[in-house]
Amino acid sequence: MLTKRIIPCLDIKDGRTVKGVNFINLRDAGDPVELAQRYTEEGADELVFLDISASEEKRKTLANLIRDIAQAIDIPFTVGGGINAMDDVGILLDNGADKVSINSAAVRRPALISDVANRFGTQCVVVAIDAKQISAEWIVHLVGGKVPTERKLFTWAQEAVDRGAGELLFTSMDHDGTKQGFANTALRQLSETVTVPVIASGGAGTMQHFIDTFVEGYADAALAASVFHFKEISIPDLKNELRLHKIPMR
Amino acid sequence: MSVAIIDYGAGNIQSIRFALERLGVSATLSSDPETIQSASHVIFPGVGEASSAMTKLKSTQLHTLIPELTQPVLGICLGMQLMCNSSEEGNTTGLGVFDTEVVRFSTTRNVPHMGWNEVKGSGVLFEKIPNHSHFYLVHSYYAIPNINTVGHCLYDINFAAAMAKKNFYGTQFHPEKSGAMGAQLLQNFLSL
Predict the structure, then answer these.
(1) What ipTM does the predicted assembly reach?
(2) How many CB atoms sit inside 10 A of residue A15's CB?
(3) Which end of chain B is less crowded, N or C, counting CB atoms within 10 A of the terminal residue's CB?
């Protein structure tokens, strides 16, 4: 049986792992390669690295870091943050990333999704969507959640899939950093709307939250950062708990 | 041991190289027929679209070279699919090593089939690998089970997750991304 995936997310800034609470107030959480190895050994199914430094100079550092990570770990990983062009994608994949996560650039220029999918395959295209609920509508936001757009979550998600997204990473900005659980109602609707896997992101605080997002949110994978970085939840314990609740785990 | 990874412009070849390095084996990326022919083991990787991959293989005559190789050859993911008779993806013919067809998943479930799934495997590739071990897969097309199938996987339907025929082997999953069990499978291949 295809298992549900547990995905630690490592926010990278200047070569270190950090985690924002509601996208601000960064705290240092360690060396990315060491953390990646630790999570791999603990049974993480995949990893996501989001580069939030994004200056041109820092992006070269990122390519080297990706290479170090690819050499060190033997599970798939996605890299995102500041990807604007085909060249950005090529560099990351050439250095060993399995997938790239495209966010703001896809909203600004949706053709980027199809360009990347046509050139490198849909399997490597993750479209990340940050959204916030504003008077009953889920509104897509850009630039780490700072800038609202005209786009709505479900129509944008469908367009992204039509253009070649192989997977969606949905972060509810209302839930992110709160540790009060994932946005399961929206996740469920999203999973029922699209035919590609959906990664739930934002709000993980307890093991029950993971159970809920798989059972109620129909998520294919659940992503979290600080609960793993600060050892509030251990991945082996989490996977055991999920197995007890009949959720298929590797 | 000299391992050649066939380079025909397919994506993410580095991962395979790094996985072999973790096993202490340094591999050569090559599109040169002589280098490939003289290698002790050949890995035929691939992610991407089948018909454009076939076009690339044909442009360098690799499509005639690969089926004639006599050393152990391992096709991974699209590599394995291209070793079949044909693929629905872009309606292309394949290399005709494995006697089967590659077709698209027709399911109400998600496509691509992405993540870790159980593989029931047998034979030399799966030595020291417990049955029903999980491997990482990401694909929208699959090979129909056939006489060459040595690994089965279920995603609504049963598909060929691994195949073997004479010196040719193939896995739909990515051993280079499948943790310890994937490393064991690569080790098994290198031991052939």
Answers:
(1) 0.93
(2) 16
(3) N
